[in-house]
Amino acid sequence: MNSSPFMPDRRHVLGLAVAFCLAPGSAAVAQTDPDAPYDGLLKRYVKPSPDGVTRVDYAAWRANAADRAALDAYIAEMAQRRPSSMARGDAMAYWGNLYNAITLKVIIDRYPVASIRDIKSDSWLDPKAYTGPWRQPRVTVEGRRLSLDDIEHAVMRPTFKDPRVHYIVNCASYGCPNLMNRAWRAATLEADLDAGARAFINHPRGVTILPSGALKVSSIYKWFIEDFGGNDAGLIAHFQTYAEPALKRHLSKSPRIAEDDYDWSLNRFRPIS
User: Fold this and answer.
1) What is the pTM of this model?
2) Environment class of 72 (CB within 10 Å of its CB; exposed 0-12, middle 13-18, buried 19+)
3) Each residue of 152-168: pLDDT tens digit?
4) What are the backbone dihedrals phi and psi of residue 62, each rounded to the nearest 5 degrees, phi first?
5) Is residue 196 part of a domain?
6) Could you list the residue range(s) of the whole structural domain that residue 62 is in?
7) What gap in Å lies between CA 134 and CA 151, rounded to an integer?
8) Residue 48 and residue 45: Cα distance in Å, rounded?
């Protein structure tokens, strides 16, 4: 893919980012672990694969009415929380979990599909609605109706200003960073973000050394290059932070980034026959 389907309106981005600005040092309302039900669902249906890409058993999840209802209930409960009152780590985990849970629901409700891009947003007035399901409002949080695009590009990216946001959100595609089989949590957020970055960058769908010595990288890095320093040098620096030794040595030569690619095929689980 050479162009991004995600092109947020900057005025909308700024408005939502301000609306959901964080209260430094504040804490969420104390409660028993509200993400435990989501943990259980992810552990049941998100499965590792020999190729290093986690897969989701969408077929089994769709076939289980109780677990479909449990996902709906989790999203409804999430919508009642107040992320604007959360500390930074809690809010970052909250928005990542909400984005991923809604994406899972979108796929499960329409499964079987070959790609998330086969599901369109219900807005004929928006030409970008035909690129996928990201433009359609799907949840109301603190009085604001939000789409997946809103959550990622109008809340998470401008609020947290951390390139590792791209390792949190999962768009149900092979080309995307792995979906964890547990919820994001503030207590483990930093370690999990770094682990997600390492897993993706050291996998061929993140960074590949071509026979010429140049690099092929995930289109994520080109679509959102502003989040990674704004240029190829910034991308190389980001890769070096998480690269394993062989890749790190190659990156020290400042290789050229020659091309980018993204695989939109569904990250569905395929039983071994």
Assistant:
1) 0.90
2) middle
3) 999 999 999 999 999 99
4) -65, -35
5) yes
6) 10-261
7) 10
8) 10
